[in-house]
Structures are given as C-alpha cells and as structure tokens.
Amino acid sequence: MSNVRISYRNYVINYYADDMFQILNLVESTSKKLTFSFVLLLLAMPIFGQEKEHWENLFNGRDFSGWKQLNGKASYEIQNGEIIGTTVANEPNSFMATEKDYGDFILELEYLVPQGMNSGIQFRSLSKPDYKNGRVHGYQFEVDPSDRAWTGGIYDEARREWLYTLEYNPAAKPAFKKGEWNKIRLECIGTSLRTFVNGIPAAHVEDDVTLSGFIALQVHAIQKDDVPGKQIKWRNIRIQTKNLKPTPDDQVFVVNLIPNNLSDAEKKNGYVFLWDGKTSNGWRGANKTTFPDKGWEIKDGAISVLSTKEDKSKKGGDIVTMGQYGAFDLQFEFKLTEVANSGVKYFVVEKDGDKEALGLEYQVLDDEKHPDAKQGVVGNRTQASLYDLIPSIKERRGQHKIGEWNWGRIVVYPDNRVEHWLNGYKVVEYQRGSPVYKVLVARSKYANHENFGMADKGRILLQDHGDNVSFRSIKIKEFNKP
C-alpha cells in the first residue's frame, strides 16, 4: 500500500474507530482501482447511513451557568465536578432547573442518593405564574431508594401524579444500586418517554400533554420530624438533541395515555384495539344480534352510557364484544359522573332466560355518593373491586376525582391468576377456581349460579346501569394458553 493510503488509513482509524473497519477493507481490497479523490469522497460520507452520537455537557462542572433554582431553598453547591443538593427544614420541593427548554432529547447522568431520601429528575417540566403560583410541574424520572424500589418510574409532579409505577415492570426494581452511583438514561422522542436504570429498561409512557420543557434536579421536601442535611449528588450530566437514535424496542409494558392510540411498541407487544374509537364495530347488545339503537352514544372518541334515570324506556342495555376471550390483558379508560354506577365484566356467558349477562365484574362506581359502595361485605362493591367478591385495596393517589379519566386494567393469566389495576396500582389479585375463590362465590349473590366465572372463554361487557359513564382507549392482548 502506498504511503498516501497508509496515511489516510491511519486518519480514518483515528476518526471513525470501529465504524470504519468495513470500509477500510474495501479500500485495501480495491486499492488499485480506487483513486485518491474517491477515498476523500468516502471519508466525507456518513458511514453506512449512520452519524456519530453528538453529546453536549449539560453541566460544566464548575458553576451553575445555564441553570436556575426554582421553588424551595434547598442548598445546591458544586464540589469536584459534582452537584450536591442538601435538604433543609420547612421548605417545599426544590429544583435546580435548566434555563433552556428541551423537547426531543436523550439524557444521561449519574446520581448518588442516601437511603430514605426520595428525589427525581424533572423533564419536559414547566413553571408558570398562572399555575399554582409557579410551582414546578411535569414529568419526573423517579429516584426511590426505599424498599418500594420505583426508581425509573415516571411521576407527573404537581399534576396527575403517577403515570408509570414499577409495579408495571417489577423486573426493573433490582436495577437500582443502594449506596452506589447509578446511571440513568432518559429518552424523550415525540410522545414516547422511556427510562433506563443502569442499562435496564424501566418505564415506557406514551403521552402528549407536554412536548417541551426544562430539565431539573430535585431535592425533595422533608417531613417535620426529619433531620435536615441529607445529600444527593449528580455528575456527568450530558444530553443529545440531534440525530437521536432510540434504544431498540425492549417489550417493556407501555402505558399509553393518548386517547384511542396504539403505539408501535404496543403493537409489537401484541395489543390490538377492542374498540376503534369511532363506531360500534365489534360490539352488540347483550343477548342481542345488533348494537342498541338507544341508551348509548359514540362521540368525541368516547363510547358512553347515557343517563336514563328520568326515562327508563330509553335504556339501551349492556353491550358485549363479538369475540370471546380466555387469557388476556385488557386496558381501558373510564370516566364517571356523580352517583354513577357501571362495570366492565369478563368471562361473560349469555344464557337464555337470564335477566342479565353474567360474568366477573370490575366495578366502576362513585364510591363516595353511590349507595352500592356501602353494600356487600367489607367494601367488595367499591370501585375496581371484583364485584361482590373481593374488595379493591386502593391508594389515595390512585383515586381520581369524579369527571376525570381513570385508567383501568384487567389481566387474566393462562393459569387463571387475575389482577385488577386502577391508575397504576394493582388493587385486586386472585385465582379463578381456587378454594378461596369458590368460598367467596358461595357467599356471594352468585352462589346459585353453577361454575360462575369459570368459563374457558367469554365476552367482555360494558354495563348499562342507567347512569352516565364513558369509556375509551379499550385495547387487549391475548395470551396463549399452554
């Protein structure tokens, strides 16, 4: 090889490293045919359509240029190229925020947090005078060193609260290392929000509420009886904003908060729409051949039961899916009006002569004002309960106000384990056909119905209880039974 080619070979190795090995082989194998100008052309071209990652330091390691403190007055200082946040008494959550807003980006940083100190990294966040007097609000990458282990979950600070708890992805809980430096990666591209903890995929949310905002490091407020002075540290904070390449799909469970939307990741995970968001296709009246011509309304991306309290003759009755389902993961959103009652039933079997299509029921109810919440036993008719059988154990933060959309989920595994979820929390867990299940049925209103809830497959039903209740974003994934 000539000295010119050797010189450019070394230049290429230094500049492109591993990405250039294939093209170097091409240059050497065809050295007699390649001209000097063609070699220069190759050097100027992106290698195989790829461009090098371009990282920018978000923190210069010396001072807070480009940053500003918001809300609380926790101490932020810089030592050895690290940002150190220290808790103080009688202050709200404090945030060291970028002065610049970011929309699509990939963020990486390292942090060290002591046991018992909750914290987080805000992203696409806002602070406006007309919203809670400038309180910081928006998405947060959760930092949770407690035994709950939700580090990497996505919380909506001062707004909707939990969007993605790590109960959706428990395999990511061990990724956080207590007492050590941890590395996070956050990918925000379009409506896709994905988190990683020490290389392990943690959360995936699809949401379009805020598409741009600042990034901030949180020092959480402390309780009155907590001793101030706990410290959290951050370092090696860097960001990409151009030529973003997301991590390949990882089959992590996706929480999609965009109404009637099915993301590519969800499709790859096996989910399909159970309702198309526009028509009655795929549904019919229970024990009927067609969709009801009254009592239901499809409007503005929601399918709603209309109130017929004043005129019961306008009631349309329950609706069911055309298809039948065995093991599945069903997701749906629902919105209640005051004193409303409805339900989502599954393993529904229609029988001639029955007054209603029977099945296991995920209760949809105004717990505060509807009298049915006080009926049954120990709250087993409250919202998200397995109606008349098992009460839901709800977190305060998992209960939305009447008139707000709730996110429900019913999971039936091939081994007959069943879960009810409400707004990010698992609130009911049982196994169909177990001795405990049989005892519960025997003591319920279904005691005289043989093999209640034990069909191999059944329809999914939306209940018309005569109250105004809306549903949307209904999707399902089927599991293969062994």
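That was protein one. Protein two is written in the same sequence-then-structure order:
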Amino acid sequence: MIPYGRQWIDEADIQAVVETLRSDWLTQGPAIGRLEAAFKERCRVPHAVAVNSATSALHIACLAIGAGPGDLVWTVPNTFVASANCARLCGADVDFVDIDPRTYNISVPALERKLRAAKAAGRMPKAVIPVHFSGRATDQEAIGALAQDYGFRVIEDASHSVGATHAGEPVGSCRWSDVAVFSFHPVKIVTTAEGGLATTRDVALAERMARLRTHGITRDPQHLSHKDEGGWYYEQVELGLNYRLTDLQAALGVSQLRRLDQFLRRRRELVARYDRLLKDVPVTRPLIDVIEESAWHLYVIRIDPQRAGKTRRELYDAMRAAGIGVQVHYIPVHLQPYYRGLGFEPGHCPEAERYSEEALSLPLYPAMSDAEQDRVVSVLGGALG
C-alpha cells in the first residue's frame, strides 16, 4: 500500500530519542524548551507552547482567550472535527463559514457577509478559527482587518502548515492573529509521533496556555498567594489539564526540524510533478499558484462524475483495491451526527458540501519516490479508463 501520507524517520531522529531515554529527563525537561525555541526562531514569534496534540493546543487557545458558555466561535466545515470541538469543549457555541471554491480555505467574502449579519443580529463571534487547508495559508491580512473592525479574536489552525509562508511572513508569526496552532501527527510536515504547539505574540496568552497545559499550576512568585514558602511550593490558580508533551517527543521534533526545508522542497517537487502528470487526466487539480509558499500537506483532486465518467466512490474503491491509499479530506464537520444534533443541516455551507462530494487526496509525503508517484498516476488513469 502506498499511503496518502507518512512520517520520514532517519537515524538522527532515532538517536535523538535514544539520547533522551538515556538522559535524566523523560518529561518536563529541557527538550521541551529546545522545541519551543526552534519554533520561535522559525516562525519569528516571541512565544511558543508545546503540548501533546494540536487538538490540545486549540483547546487551551480557546480557554486562554476566555471562550466559554454564551460565546460563539466560528470555523470552517472543511477541516478535522477538532477545529470546532475545541470551542465546544469550552462550552461555547459553534457556527461555520463556507469555503472559497478555489483555495478550499475560509471564504473572506462569506466571512464578511456573515459578520455583517451577526452584527445586525447582535450575536458576534468571540473568535474565528481559520484553517490553513492542505498547507496553504488563509488570507490572514484580510481576516486580521475584519477582526479589528468587528472585535473578534483569531486562532489560526495551522495544523497542515508547518514551514508555510504568506506575504513574506512565516505561518505562525501571528502578525494578523492572536494564536497559531501546529500539528506534529505522523502524516503532517514534521512529527513528534503525537504532538502540537501554539505560537503567539501575546505574553499573557502564552503564560496562560503554558499554565493550562499543566493542571493550571504555577510556581511563578508573582502569581502565588503565599510567596515565602519553600522551594517545593506550587499553587493551582485555575482549572487546567494535563496536555504536556514528553521530552522523547520533543527531541524527535527538534531532530525533524533539521530537515524541514528538505521535506518542504520534496513535497513541492512532487506537487509540481503531479500537476504535469495529471494535465490531461479528467480531474480538477488543486490551485498551485503559491507552490513555494504552501507546505503542501495534501494534494487533493476533485472528481466530477460527468467529466470523469466515474464517481468518487468508484475511484476510491478501485485505487484502494490496487494498493493506493487515497483518502477524503474532509467530511463537512457540520454534517457529522453530533453537529446535526445541534441543528445544522445540509445547505448550511454549500461550497464545502459540494467540495466534499468530489474531493480525493492522492498520496503525498517527502519519502515518496518518483516511481511510486508514477504508479499512483497510472492506477488513477486506469481507473478512469
């Protein structure tokens, strides 16, 4: 099976983990700080908080901005469920903004229309969570300008976008947002096995997220009610969680970052190659006008049954049977049974729903060979027959 995505682990990665196993620290040690420092440098941002998953990072970001019961958080339906669940876990309500039919990211015109209607109705969002789908940055300048005009917070779900850039800024710099969140799942750009990280320019948000990942506990004298106790002393100042990343994972992440540019370069080579190889195949290829800016986590084609002569399901089954691990990203979140139970129905985000009926992710990962890619294209062509 050629999977749609997978990690690329080398001997240096293995050695980094082994060295950590032989060290004095398996968790809450110096490797965490090294990973955070590496991301601060890469993203040109003053604060980074590493946690055990991007879902956890989204959750503590929502908690840190004060999202809770009575608040409203907007995101897109073309994402994994965590982008919406993070707000629900805080007790906030969720709504969805439709996507741009070319980029599959949040539609800024749709967002602006929804904001005007929300202002007129007196029900504004506390935050908007735009998702950098497939590694392509959203239009953060425009979203940031709307945030200034309408007074909402912005949490970037950049889970797909480690190493991506936009308008000369690294994704994660938070120039136009409050927080950006990354994922280190094995199929993402770099991996810590499981893991995530949040960046921010706001020291108060950084401090609160760091505290929330560790049970709401602090040893910082300025936050203690009793300041003259012994060196053992700590206080729980709010209700937090155990979202800590281990040093083993952090060491793997630091090692993986050595090859980030290599990973990105190979992903972009494969994307350009797909674009050439699929030129005459009756599918819709992704927009690649920003090939050097996107991290290219996914390469998604769209299947129009009338043009292709096959349904997406027929192609999915045929390619899977031939050992090609195609996948669908994503089933619209608002059509999941849980969210339907909250009142969402088909037609709420028609562009995202139309996209989801046609989308098929082809295998894309940096260790993929040209021969493997040729096989993917050959099987796709044969299935379209």
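The domain at 11-257 is CATH 3.40.640.10 (Aspartate Aminotransferase; domain 2). Keep this in mind for the problem set.
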